[in-house]
Amino acid sequence: MEISAKGKQCIARVKLDSSNTQLLSGLPGFHRWINRDMLFSPTGANINYIAKHWPDAQWSSEARVFLDSYIDTLEEATKNRTFETPPIDDFAFETKPFEHQRKAFYMSRDKENFALLMEQGTGKTKIIIDNAAYLYGRGKINCLIVIAPNGVHRNWLNNEIPVHMPKWCPINSIYYQSGMNKAHTKKFNDVIGSREVLKIFTFNVEAFVSKTAMRFLENILLSHDCLLVVDESSRIKTPGTHRTKVITKLGKLAKYKRILTGTPVTKGAEDVFAQFKFLDPYILGHDSFYSFRARYCVMREYDNRKWIVGYQNVDELTNSIKGHSFRVLKKDCLDLPEKIYQRAYVELSKEQRKIYNSIKNEYVAQLGDDEISVPETITRILRLQQVVCGWFPSENGVKPINKTNLRLKALLDIISEIDSKIIIWARFRADIMAIQTALGDSAVVYYGDVSSDDRVIAVDRFQKDPQIKYFIGQPQSGGIGLTLTAAQYAIYYSNSFDLETRLQSEDRCHRIGTTTNVTYIDLEASKTVDGRIIKALRDKKSVADIVNEDPRSMFLEMENE
Q1: Which residues pair with 396 in a beta bridge?
Q2: Per-domain boundaries in the chain
Q3: Please, which contacts does 214-223 make with residues 24 or more away whose CB atoms are closer than 8 Å?
Q4: Overall average pLDDT of the 509-526 stretch
């Protein structure tokens, strides 16, 4: 086989027989026939495939650049994780990096596209700030744009950049918010027009339902040399959503791109597609999710739909990603205190148990013959969880089952024995309101309806004010991107069903800066869905994964508990 280069693509020429034709057609990434030659993208997966099947292939000098680059990145990625890196020329860090941060900075600093797949609490944000300063200092960029979850985008400006941005790097920064008044819009435009500084803009990822936010970001990208960062990139892991499509399209205008996440995969290989397509579709060699899925997922038809039931060619996919990412876990790089897990058992009132059994038995009976969809099953589990928390679900919301909520009473008994700051995670707004009323001025709240300004204040007060002992948060909104290291305990009053949400929320208080053991307490009402939910999450599975495997298990297996 002879391989030559054509721009950013390669061309393979080989004696065509049935065997070679079939093998070439099996290239995992982008490829197409041009007469009797095969045009293909020099991704890691494609180069690995060629090297495996045609080890004696003759590479032209131009094509060998791609081969050598693949070999170099593969060797770099597969080194032992000792985190010993070469000196970083004369770059002046504002805050001293840990060795794993130094390693990540060294690997990513000059890359146009890169993924920091670093577990929560290992210091991803600092690396991006150092990347931005490095690129600005070398005249590569004049603008840093961060897209992050609501509240977290403000944390970049208020807490992270002031600490880690080198003093020698001049900056002008502002955050975007929906419905900006004239004064804030003027400040925003003033930053856009500023000169001789690194301009920094942070956007709330939820803002991209608005065409206004899209236009603001598009104008900045078109008029600047930008480093575009998606923090908690799992928010764009679903290919078909409006948010993912918009951010991916706008990303094509950025000179440099980064994604940050500690949980790149929560379900399976399909999770990585949209995140890496945002960076560059050629990394994975697939611009279409369906061709990607055909290559790496095993499909089965069930209930007139195709479902992913397994995975294939995983080593190939991993090799494609390695040269464009840095992965590290806390256990590999930080000497953090231990995580301690406990359960606190809660009784149901007679009325609660009666309502719970009635609803559960109705569901179990229906499961006997009917095919119940996964979303419907999840909804039914949610209804049972509401009952367990003391609420009767109805079309008009929820109402208390008893005058005295035994679950709330159990929580108050537990925290009365703890002489330190505590995070209390609660899924339902009704729970948050009830807990806040019980704890009064010693607590701050953080959930969907809390404004961005008040979210910042809540985190700051919990971290610094000795009078604030409790942080009451909704894990779906407060469990991502925050630093809550003042807490030594986290109590799960009611759990989210999503594994990523659980892991993210756990790591708000178990990260760089944690000096003592952290204790996690799950409230559990015996012989209820509580036990099944907690077991799934501690087994590192989302509830949806359990239901998808067997929609009946969440109900039928509870009979024996």
Answers
A1: none
A2: 2-76, 90-287+315-332, 339-560
A3: 214/246, 214/250, 216/176, 216/188, 217/145, 217/176, 217/250, 218/250, 218/253, 219/192, 220/143, 220/145, 220/192, 221/145, 221/250, 221/253, 221/254, 222/253, 223/192
A4: 87
Q: Do domains 90-287+315-332 and 339-560 have the same CATH topology?
A: yes
Gap between the Cα atoms of 96 and 105, Å rounded: 12
Residue with tokens 């012989």: 527
Q: Can you tell me the distance from the alpha carbon of 181 to that of 503, in angstroms, rounded to the nearest whole number? A: 37
Q: Residue 513: which pLDDT band, with cuts at 50, 70 and 90? A: confident
Rg (CA), the chain: 26
Matching residue, tokens 């999450």: 537
Q: Give residue 84's pLDDT.
A: 46
Number of H helices, E strands in the chain: 25, 22
pLDDT tens track for 148-202: 987 788 889 988 999 999 999 999 999 998 778 888 888 988 999 888 899 999 9
d(CA 505, CA 393): 26
Supply angle C-alpha 128, 130, 134, rounded to 5.
Answer: 115
DSSP annotation of 180: -
Computed over every residue of the chain, the mean pLDDT equals: 86
> What residues contact 152, with CB distance under 8 A and at least 6 apart?
231, 232, 480, 481, 482
Residue 185 CB coordination number (10 Å): 12
Instruction: Indicate the fold that domain 339-560 takes in CATH.
Output: Rossmann fold (3.40.50)
CA-to-CA separations, 44 to 140, 319, 348, in angstroms, rounded: 26, 6, 56
In the structure encoding, which two tokens stand for residue 150, read together? 């609501």
Q: What is the pTM of this model?
A: 0.67
Q: Which CATH class is domain 90-287+315-332?
A: alpha beta
Q: How far apart are CA 176 and CA 207, in angstroms?
A: 9
* d(C-alpha 207, C-alpha 215), whole Å: 11
Count other C-beta atoms under 10 Å from residue 270's C-beta: 18
* Residue at token pair 């999503």: 498
pLDDT in tens, 360-369: 888 877 775 5
